[in-house]
Fold:
Amino acid sequence: MRYYVVIPAHNEAGFIEKTLQSLVDQSLLPVKVIVVNDHSTDTTEQLIDQYIEKHAFFTKLNTQSSEDHMPGSKVVNAFNKGLALLDQNYDFIVKLDADIILPKTYFEKIAAVFTEDPQIGITGGFAYEQDQNGRWLLNHPMGKDHIRGAFKAYRKEAFSAINGLRCAMGWDTLDELLVRYHGYRVQSIESLKVKHLRPTGGSYNKKARLLQGKAMYTMGYGLSLTMIASLKMALMNKKPRVFIDNLQGFFKAKNTQTPLIVSNQEATFIRTYRWRKIKSKIGLN
Structure:
């Protein structure tokens, strides 16, 4: 299968060389890799250039945005700029962070999953992060049917059905909800262990948490689901403030009548799907 990769990169000099090398080492090589150098002020660009000189499938796109390392709209905006340089001659497309080390057979196995089941719309492995003792430990706070936004692979037809990625906090949850709405499945691959070099959530602050609450509103969660999801996040992070900030973001979006980023039909599906998952977890289904 043919696949393209888009890598948003902002000040990733400490990591990006390992990410690009792990692509070069793949048993199934990408056809094209667009590295979006998003307003980097360190040596990220020079490291990208070194790989462009050696490998024809790498292309660099320099772009300007804010210096804030905010999750959500910033990274998707950079991804979309890289996506605009690509044609449609691919079987699956990958959004990859610049602080990732992939196992050598990663995309060979991704291609096999897509080939074997045409109903799989999104797939990927699991993230492992290094602890203080140098051990690589699984860090996957979501359910096993969720693929981390740092390394998502999309079947072309599914990616087209959801009209790409939304420039909003929570995009890497919404994409999975929407592919399910369109009749596709999300399949994780436990055997694919991805090394994530930067600790998860290291750049999340109050502004990000407010945006998380806004995202829950604009995805059509409603208050009850937002409260449940926010409470879960607060307990997982052991930070009660997460719950408060999320709800503040939700009510601010509601009070200003912020438009939803999904249709009414999609919002209804999302709420129904979320409630079904909750009931299943507590044994009511």
The chain is about 45% helix and 20% strand. The first strand starts at residue 3 and ends at 9.
